[in-house]
Design brief:
single chain; 193 residues; mainly alpha; de novo design (two linked rop proteins); 2 domains; elongated
Length: 193
């Protein structure tokens, strides 16, 4: 039992510091795996352990989805983004279900719907061209909103940093492809007139 006297009292902090982010760093996880391997008299390969910790199983699962040759590249990228978001948010804590998870899933699916609508509009008149541009603009806005919500979700420990990085990369790729699509539409329209 702990003996505490007035002269030798415990120093209890009045406030606790706010620790945000992942408390277990990569080095901590590697050290734990090494200690377990040593305790069990097993071999320990540091590089393999680091690789297995950093491996993103959800991304590998999504990358196995076959691409459809009939779809635009941007539509395929957004489909994979949506599948990835659904895969990673399945494991998110339930307290984030209404705040981040549903919103992220809905934004990714709405973006796909908007891009499919834009793809089905033929550019045969000025009005149709403007309508398609409006859909493309809406898709970019939804993707930027998805990026912001995923950043907040990562800050709140709803998703992991590597998952947020992957979402950001896929969003950036999708936005670049939409911009290239808009540029291609503009060039075709100029050649036509």
């Amino acid at each position: 039992m702990l003996q505490v006297s007035r002269a030798n009292n415990l120093k209890i902090p009045k406030t606790l510091e706010n620790v945000s982010g992942n408390l277990n760093s990569l080095e901590d996880k590697v050290a734990v795996k090494q200690a377990l391997a040593t305790a069990n008299d097993k071999r320990f390969n540091k590089n393999k352990v680091i690789e297995s910790i950093e491996k993103d199983k959800e991304l590998e699962q999504v990358n196995k989805i076959p691409t459809n040759a009939n779809d635009l590249m941007v539509i395929t990228v957004v489909k994979k983004l949506g599948a990835y978001i659904i895969a990673i948010t399945e494991k998110s804590p339930s307290k984030f279900r209404g705040v981040f998870v549903n919103r992220m899933q809905n934004l990714s699916l709405e973006t796909l719907e908007i891009l499919l609508n834009a793809n089905f509009i033929r550019i045969d008149s000025e009005d149709h061209k403007k309508e398609r541009e409006e859909y493309q603009k809406d898709a970019i806005i939804k993707l930027k909103m998805l990026g912001y919500i995923s950043m907040i979700a990562e800050n709140s420990n709803c998703i992991l940093m590597r998952q947020y990085k992957q979402i950001s990369l896929q969003i950036g790729e999708a936005i670049n492809l939409i911009a290239a699509w808009k540029k291609s539409d503009d060039e075709r329209w100029r050649k036509r007139n």
